[in-house]
Amino acid sequence: MNRKLAREFCMKMMFQMSIHNNYDLNIIKGHLDEEVEVIEVQQMDYIQELLKVVTENRQQLDDIIVEFSKGWKLDRIAKVDLAILRIALGEILFMENIPFAVSINEAIELAKKYSTHESANFINGILGRYVEEKGINKNE
To answer: 78: domain range?
Structure first.
């Protein structure tokens, strides 16, 4: 499993957690056990770290999403888009080794695959405005 697939796995787990309104990290254990043959050790570490920072900082991430979505409430944002935004912001804020441009681009690609073209633009707008306003400069 490469990083792109690991990120997609994390998005699916966040989506499932939001559907069930259960953000207990123990629920991913079964899913990870099912995928253990195809998940490389490096990606396993990434998955665990990303899901941990997203679940532990979900309120902060949600506050950012609300602030930068220009009047949208969380319950109006599609759950798949919300999962994608949480994953991307989790990487941008808490994972120093991932350039923000990669996080944004991957979020857009996930939106194109799992949501709508409008969602891709919406997600790009939120993430782009956030990094610009906060002066985030995690380049290459």
So the answer is: 3-134
